[in-house]
Amino acid sequence: MPLMSEKKKAGKVATVFSWTLGVLACLWVAWCCAIGPLYWFGTGLSGFGWSNAAYMAIAFVISFAMLRALVRYGRGERVLPRYFARRHEKLRHEIAGTPTTVLGIMLRHLHDAAHSRPGRAIHAVIVWGGRKLTSCTDCWWKLMLVFVIGWLWVPTTLLAAFGADIRSQIREFSWVLNQWTGLKQPYIGFFSFVPMDIYPTAHYMWPANPTYLTDQHNVVLTVVYGAFAAVSRYLTDSNDAGIVVLAALQWLFAAFCCAATANRFFNLPWRRLGVGTFDFSHPERHDCWNMRDFTHPEAGVVARPSRLRAGAKTRFVILLFFMVCPLSVFATISLTKSPLFAFAFVWWFGVWYELHMTHIKALPTINGKPMKLRKRSLCALFASSCVMLISAKYAWYIILFAAVLALVNDRKRWKTYAVALLLPTVLIHGGLVYLVNSGAIIGGDPIESRGIQLQQIARVAKYNPQGIPEDAAKKLAPIFNLDQMAESYFQQDADPVKSSGIQSKKVSYKWRTVTEKDMDNFNDAWWQIVKANPQIALDAFFAECFGYFDVVDLPYVSMDYYVNNDYVQSDNEWIHLYNHKWRDQVAGFAKQWGNIPVIGWVTHGNLYVTLTLIIGAAEVVLRRWRSLSWHLPLLLLMGVMITAPANNFERHMLPVAFVFGFLCLQFWRESCAARIAADNVRRFGTCNA
């Protein structure tokens, strides 16, 4: 008895803790929605009033209702109130005599002979379409064809999409190529301006031996992009052909990644699923099937909901998102690091689902050993990890974090995680660290990771310059020009404060003269300013990140920007001459769609980020720790968004948006078993009936 009481107490404590985390997630979403209007009109937290409080209360009620509904659904409990459930049953009886109505066709039994001829025809067309869609997406190469055909218009009519980053990378590689060929170029000097000064890297980080290759935009991508552009210049006297080829290759990579992951979630290819009849001589081959009625074998079998391959409706909705949503469509040819990382993350996420579904507790074997990861999946996990590492600097944090969780959760397959996660991290990240330390390349400036701190200092310098302590001003003087910081401050983006860019550069960051010793005083000066101006500091923090969790907030930079900006539409040799007006029309349509209230939310990444956070909170409440262990990288990605230099920058949300549909599918599958068990308890009084 004492042991039972202790277990009950521990269970209550765990319940309270999990619900507390869920409520905190809802409060965070509600808070971001409530403060959004304050920053739209530039008032800040000082303008928080009753209208914002009411807005916050409404947003909290909605998000908590969604959380509560997901938890009840996950437990197999009734989601809708009893009144609506009864009304639904009554409606079914009322339309029983009118099968020709659309609602009647939907609610009537599919094989009811009382259907009218039009109803049967519509139903037959829907069933035929569903079967064809399922058969056309039952393996990865068919899905690859679907993605290639569905996205074919993108590279053929838009050619490529890019911004300032790839131009900077091409310029950087050109300087390196000139150095390799013996051309003498300026290096450190007051009047020199080299590629490392565009997105400025402090001169104290430059090695004594001249080098022009940096890790600012990921050195591997810089070399690849620059090499393609160099070959293009050699053959065609312009970079444009190389840019188009790079966009086409990324488009193919995106189709492959999405097809591979969709195949894993739709078809569960690691399982031997039976089709048609049930073979009683080999029941072990059909652990995905249940008899409809053991007293009537002729009734056939049905797939277990927990092992069910995705149905036609699920496949249609997920594929529709990838084919129509501007986030995915424009990302396929957008030559910047975030889309490449996002598609590699989709591939990586799919392999994690296979690892999750073949875990020893999910799929036990006779000898008590977990199923080995398929060789192709092991190669996929290794390759996707490598692409993630070469496309985003923060990837090694995510991969290392996932590896630690995997080793704790699935220790018996530690060799898999060592080979596919730890090995590429050591090789690629360790190799980059070695190149930086050896002076072969210039590492990224640590100021890049201090966007929030810079915004807080700059906002105080703009709105309350007299509030900066004298000691803090002295410590910052060798690093920043506070007057220029105040002038260049923009609450949506920290790049102007960092003196990033080439157009009308304001020298707020003294990257030419700052020393490593000067940077030692930065954190102390920042903390003094924050303590003296807490409200302004909070304003700067929330202004830079609230949009990622406010579904009403329009993106600061949406993905259509890369389709028709000046770099694409004018500042090139011949790309701007190809379908110039069509690019404007496509980008304009996406922009107009995104500006429509509610309907346009599906085109914005913050909708999927917010819903993913709520689904994660539901998994915490349901205590699905094994599922949560491979979903936590999504939470780390949200942390990356918060610390990113810009607010509501859509390219940072691409990984979460791309895997959202698969996340919903997995949550539904895991909830089906609980729902069936709950139904059996209600009907028969036992879950084994």
TrEMBL record:
It holds the Pfam family DUF6020. The chain crosses the membrane at residues 21-41, 53-71, 140-166, 186-206, 218-235, 241-262, 316-334, 340-357, 378-408, 414-436, 628-646. Signal peptide: none annotated. It comes from Bifidobacterium ruminantium. Keywords: Membrane, Transmembrane, Transmembrane helix. This is Uncharacterized protein.
